Amino acid sequence: MKTTELKTEFCRVYGGAPDDIRLFSAAGRVNLIGEHIDYCGGRVFPAALNLRTVVAARKRPGSKEIRLAATTLPDRVTLNIDTLDAYRGLKWGDYQAGVAYVMREAGFAVGGCELLYDTTVPFGSGLSSSASIEVATARMLCAFSGEAGGKTADLVELAVLSQRAENTYNNVACGIMDQFAASLGKKAHAILLDCKTLAYQYIPLDLGRYSLVIANCNKSRSLIESKYNERRAECEQALSLLQTRLPGITCLADVSPEDFEKNQAVLAGKVADRARHVVGECARVAESARLLQAGNIEAFGECLNQSHRSLKDLYEVTGVELDALAGAAQAFDGCIGSRMTGAGFGGCTVSLVESGRAAEFAKFVTDRYQKAVGYAPTFYQTSVEDGAKELYE
Ligand code: GLA
To answer: Which of 57, 111, 339, 340 has the fewest other C-beta atoms within 10 Å?
Structure first.
């Protein structure tokens, strides 16, 4: 929705004039490579998208209520600031409640406000709609806290607070990648983020004669949280077994491919496969960053293909639909790499496609995918943009 329309809609929902409405925005993200390794201390390589959440906000001085509404849903929710702990498990609004709760606990001055959310990140797409909502909320609450003479925070701290909210309030054991990208993304750059130390570096997303194409396999995701948490538990098991041989390691990302080969005998079955994915994926991220900076986009594309294969065969988070979608993309002569992005089990793929051939690519992939799966994928018009910010328009 355009910002003028959003303000008009805000006045329709809450009344009053548009003058004191503020706008805060945070991004959805695509992860280029480095999947399922953020919670293993690995380096990941996400970028923030033009698919985003904008929250239109107005302070309500003296009020104890945070009112929530959305442009795309009929739901209306009122949160009482003194009982923020009580809104876990809401159908809609619990991400906002979680962030408000965690920030209040952390000492921010959380006050009454009216909020209208406008999200263009498709829900359940694996492009981090939840992180974009959390970080937009955190960015807004932080600004209002500072203006009320309370605590403020930088964008890294806001990402960490948002992740804490999702972990402790929404019971999703996610890593830091999504909130970090939603918060710290930079136009035309990818973020090379070390999830162990939170050190990060912006790498220009110069893809030469190729462009990123993001496609949704449109499979409805189910049981994703339990499967996600199961993978995390398997990684923790692998870590403690490897630590019996490699006492210096504190996370799976500390294990080099050479050390893994020498010591993998302590692991068996699925746990060995999961750890092998993590170690290999960490190496692929390092290689990808190097290749991208060297302008070797074709070899970077091959890293994407290898990543998908590892997520399919070793980590087992793809499924028929994502495999069909990535497979169709990889079969197109102008596509040099394609992989699932995000948690998997449904959601999106990211592909590197010759610029100017996106429409031809979409047709080719749709035909093949539809034959294999029975319904069509959705393609998004995306660009790489900044993370969280206040909009002055
Ligand atoms: C989800 C989580 C992230 C990350 C990815 C997989 O998006 O929120 O923290 O673990 O899955 O790479």
So the answer is: 111
